[in-house]
Amino acid sequence: MVNTALKELRLSSNQIGDEGAAAIGEALKFNTALNKLGLSSNQIGAEGAKALASALEVNSALNTLGLDHNEFGDAGAAAIGEALRFNTALNKLYLNSNKIGDAGAKAIGDALVVNTALKTLSLWSNEIGDSGATAIANALVVNTALNKLLLGCNQIGDSGAKAIGDALVVNSALKILVLEDNKIGSEGAKALASALEVNTALKTLSLQFNNLTDDGKRALRAAKEQRSAPLELGL
Q: Where are the beta strands (DSSP E) in the chain?
């Protein structure tokens, strides 16, 4: 019997593992009722993530998925990215602390080029560097759906920040961008500042705990003062 009543299921901090994730994924292929699923801290590896990703390709009900603090790395992220190419329902995806590096971020970025549903993407505390950030930035050039992007506590430096700045020049959808606790220095800060002078959509930009110089901070503050739209700026 297929359950048609349950709307939210929280199973965080258990020991579900790959086998359990595969069973849940199989159920999701047929379920048309569940809206929110929390599977954080469950020792889900790449195979479990792949099983869940396979379900996302056909599931049309789930709008929120939490997979923080698992172990699936780039292989799992790549599978999820592939699923996002087809999924039209999911609008909040949390992938914090999953050992996702540049390859996984690139797969997700490539998916965001075509995905029109996802509104919130959280990739806190992973291993994403400049090339991964650039892939996501490239997606932001054309993506019109994502409005909250959390990339705090990664390995993003100036070139990644510059790519994101270039994207912000043309992006009109993103409202919240968190880049705190990365490796962004003066050049990255100045690139973001230049973008803020023309971008009027962004409402919050967090850059605390980076390698910002006084020059970089001055450029960002000046851009905030000059722009026509209000901005909450964290330095």
A: 8-10, 36-38, 64-66, 92-94, 120-122, 148-150, 176-178, 204-206, 232-234
Q: Is residue 34 part of a domain?
A: yes
CA distances to 139, 162, 179, 220, 235 from 188, in Å:
19, 5, 11, 10, 13
Range of the domain at 21: 8-128+141-150+170-175
pTM of the shown model = 0.96
Residues facing residue 9 across a β-bridge:
37
Residue entry with tokens 């990255």? 188
Domain count, the chain: 1
Per-residue pLDDT of the chain (235 residues; tens, 9 = 90+): 466 789 999 999 999 999 999 999 999 999 999 999 999 999 999 999 999 999 999 999 999 999 999 989 999 999 999 999 999 999 999 999 999 999 999 999 999 999 999 999 999 999 999 999 999 999 999 999 999 999 999 999 999 999 999 999 999 999 999 999 999 999 999 999 999 999 999 999 999 999 999 999 999 999 999 998 999 999 9
For residues 110 and 82, the answer to whether their CB atoms sit within 8 Å is no
Which residue, among 113, 180, 177, has the nearest Cα to 150 in the 3D structure? 177
Residue 200 lies in a domain: no
Q: Are 138 and 110 in contact (CB under 8 A)?
A: no
CATH classification of the domain holding 32: 3.80.10.10
